[in-house]
């Protein structure tokens, strides 16, 4: 298998292994993560694609005034 030229990290490894998409997080405080993750997974469970779910959840957190440490830690990779 030929590896890509870009940096190898968890997201590219999981995508190479066959994952359709990956939402990666910087480490965030355990007390801050649950509301974000619950909302993200609620949207995905309702059938919204992962990229849109993440964007909508981040926008909700921004509109609520949550600090960037809560919503800026996530990025979506893949389809």
Structure description:
The protein has 79 residues and is an alpha+beta fold. Helix content is 49%, strand content 13%. The chain has a two-stranded antiparallel ribbon with strand order 1-2. Helix 2 crosses helix 3. The two termini are 21 Å apart.
In short:
With 79 residues, the protein is an alpha+beta fold. It has helices spanning 10-16, 33-45, 50-64, 68-71; strands at 21-25, 74-78.
Question: Which H/E pattern describes the elements?
Answer: HEHHHE
**Low-confidence stretches at least 5 residues in length (pLDDT < 50)?**
none
Radius of gyration in whole Å, from Cα?
14 Å
- Total DSSP helices: 4
Quickly give the structural class. alpha+beta
User: Major sheet: order of its strands?
Assistant: 1-2
The major β-sheet equals: 2 strands, antiparallel
Distance between the termini: 21 Å
Helix coverage percent: 40-55%
Strand content: 5-15%
Shape: globular
How do the helices and strands line up, and which of them pair or pack?
Layout: H1 10-16, E1 21-25, H2 33-45, H3 50-64, H4 68-71, E2 74-78
Antiparallel strand pairs: 1-2
Helix pairs in contact: 2-3
């Amino acid at each position: 298998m030929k590896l890509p030229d870009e940096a190898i990290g968890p997201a590219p490894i999981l995508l190479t292994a066959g994952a359709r998409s990956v939402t990666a997080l910087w480490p965030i405080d355990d007390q801050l993560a649950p509301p974000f993750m619950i909302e993200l997974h609620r949207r995905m469970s309702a059938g919204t694609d992962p990229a849109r779910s993440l964007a909508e959840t981040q926008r909700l957190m921004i509109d609520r005034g949550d600090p960037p440490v809560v919503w800026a830690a996530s990025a979506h990779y893949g389809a």
